[in-house]
Amino acid sequence: MDEVFKYQESITNALLHANDKFQQVEQANNIEGVLSNAKDYHEKVVNIKKSLSLLKDRTSRLRVRAIKLIEEKKREDAERQRLKERREMLEKHLEPVVDTQPE
């Protein structure tokens, strides 16, 4: 009987050792999966950062263009107003021509 118990104990130890190795391999595979997911997410983050950078550049250029257009519009309005005032002033200074010759 002792021999059977020793044999059973050695088989149990072998199974426990094999189970430990299996768990280690499973954990290693799980780590590989986690690393793969981390790599995928890192690529997504990098792509999002690139997109945000492009959007920032575009909005900056649009903002500068909008400011230039607003300034140009103000200049045009000021010039239009100046011409209108000048025209009104000239009209005030015009003297009516009276026909002095009889017909």
Automatic annotation (TrEMBL):
Residues 66-93 form a coiled coil. InterPro entries: Snapin/Pallidin/Snn1. Pfam families: Snapin_Pallidin. Keywords: Coiled coil. GO terms for cellular component: BLOC-1 complex; transport vesicle. This is Pallidin. It comes from Aceria tosichella (wheat curl mite).
